[in-house]
Write a structure and sequence with these properties.
about 475 residues; alpha+beta; f41 fragment of flagellin, N-terminal domain; 3 domains; 5-stranded antiparallel sheet
Length: about 475
Amino acid sequence: MATISSLGVGSGLDSEGIINALMSVERRPVSLLVQQTADIKTQLSSIGQLQSLAATMRDKAAAISSVSLWGQTALTSSDPTRITGSSSSSSAIGRYSVEVLTLAASQTSTSTAFATSDTPLNEGSLTIDLGTWAGTAFTAKPGSTPVSITIGAGEASLASIRDKINAAGAGVTASIINDANGARLSLRSTATGEENGFRITATETADDGNVATGLSALGVDGTLTSPMELNQAAGNATAKINGISVESANNTLTNVADGLTLTLGKAEPGVAVEVVVASDTEAVKTAITDFVTAFNALATYIKDQTKYNEASKTGAPLQGDRTVIGFQWQLRGVINQESTASTEWGRLSEVGIAMKADGTLGISTSDLEEALENPDELRKLLATDAADTASSGFMDRFKDLGNSVLDTTDGSLETLEQSLQARVERNDDRQAQMEDRLVSTEARIRAQYQALDTSMARLNALSNYVTQQMAALSNNS
């Protein structure tokens, strides 16, 4: 008898429906593993975010523990239009009276007027030297080298000479000033300061003997008869700090006192500007605020990830996780344990940092500002790195706790993450094994129903044959 190609035809049963129902029961353990894996991956995602928040909290605590934070100073000026500046950790706390006498200047020299910028002069060369003028005496700048510019055929117009000077990199910038009188070449030192004055020696290929004409008209020799007019002499910035005369080639007095840099903005002899260098408490306050923000983000996340929703009867991804709950208690334990690092205070709440009912930290601005008036003791309370926990500062404790739970070898959060990853891998392996068994199981069940169909088909055929034979006998009788 031919093989039944469609299940149920021989038996009249819904074999496919029966097999699907049976396989659904057989597949239930796989479905449970799939859901379990999804839940574990959700936990892994939560642990990853928890690690990130813990790292941020640790880093903000470490910033407060940094020696450089507590050594910072801030500079203020009574007149920022005249004096601005900066200070460093090496700057001494103090006050300075600063009087700006002159600002640094660049030498500026201008030629006589020519008809246009295209007016041709003549061929030759210009040699530019940088240095200091003392009347008509010129002293070359140490380390500088004269720059010679060749003016060839077709290059002798005022505009071409300007371009060649600018391209030479000789420490002088050229421009052309146009007005009703014509075009004049203006030369200016690129840098300020007495030593950045310049001298220009003009040499004509065919000298007409007149220094006021041709290329000779661009010479600068420091005399009253110099072809180019001196509009402004190069000069140093000069000032008085606490009555002491100082000067600089530019308008920035670098390291004029230990770690102190002043920038001069406007000269006004006889007017003193008060410059104050003080401890930078704002930097400390900002660092503390940043830590509290990071701590609160961490505390709030742990609370949200471990809560139980009574209405929906469901728990958050990390609800009941002993590692996470333990970390939460460790965070609170750091705050609850008094510190002996400072002789002034023993608890964070005494300097305006207190835990609220929801487990986050709050800052009392007035209490913190009062504590900042005694920065040495506040630094001890927060940043002391001691051998034992009781003698350590609070931020040092938080930093150590963060390092501990995030340690890549045996940190509790790292270990938890690895454990969850291992569970996912085990579940994946079990799912693969179960899928293999399900394939075999389905094949076995289908074979059984195939055999049933074949047997039922034979029985049905035999029944039909017997019925036909009985009918035939009845008709013959």
